[in-house]
Design goal:
Elements lengths: L6 E11 L4 E6 L3 H4 L4 E6 L2 E12 L4 E6 L5 H5 L5 E5 H4 L15 E4 L5 E9 L6 E4 L4 E3 L5 E5 L4 E4 L9
Parallel strand pairs: 7-12
Antiparallel strand pairs: 1-2, 1-6, 2-5, 3-4, 3-6, 4-5, 7-8, 8-9, 9-10, 11-12
């Protein structure tokens, strides 16, 4: 059984496309293309299920059409509409140079100055030009490469040089 901490969200399936089971796939991270993945993980009624990719083609830099094995009709594709799509962390780790910000959801943030835990990253806000980590308590922290001092994937920790005065606002 696939556990939530073993994957990270990369997008969502949209409408069925055509009659042969293709689906529109809106993604935030193209890691599935960079590491040549065989499958994606879909959240089907709260259960994480691997679906093997038969083929896909990009429509834009954030949308693709994807065809999964065993999904051969428009009706079957419609059953997967609006399903969240996840990617296995274990496959993404081989792509360290291009980890997406969403990979860090679930990581504990450590303040580089004090060495203390600031909180757990609950979400990534990429709706503005400046990407932000949202901690479980609602605190927003800039997600900037120049602030990251260390990433420990085994411990699921990210050490960040926090801007002075940010915590406690």
């Amino acid at each position: 059984m696939i556990k939530k901490e073993e994957v990270f969200k990369i997008g969502r399936l949209g409408k069925a496309h055509g009659v042969k089971g293709e689906l529109s796939f809106m993604f935030d991270d193209d890691v599935f293309d960079r590491v040549d993945a065989d499958y994606l993980v879909l959240d089907v009624d709260g259960i994480l299920v691997p679906f093997f990719i038969e083929e896909y083609r990009f429509r834009s830099d954030s949308t693709a059409l994807v065809k999964f094995e065993g999904v051969d009709t428009q009706e079957r594709a419609r059953e997967l509409t609006n399903t969240d799509v996840y990617f296995p962390r274990s496959l993404a780790e081989s792509d360290d140079e291009q980890l997406s910000w969403s990979f860090f959801v679930g990581f504990t943030m450590i303040d580089a100055t004090t060495g203390q835990s600031v909180g757990k990253i609950a979400a990534v806000d990429d709706t503005t030009m400046n990407i932000l980590f949202e901690l479980e308590d609602g605190t927003l922290v800039p997600a900037a490469e120049e602030l990251i001092e260390k990433v420990d994937q085994k411990k699921k920790q990210i050490t960040i040089a926090l801007p002075e005065g940010l915590i406690g606002l």
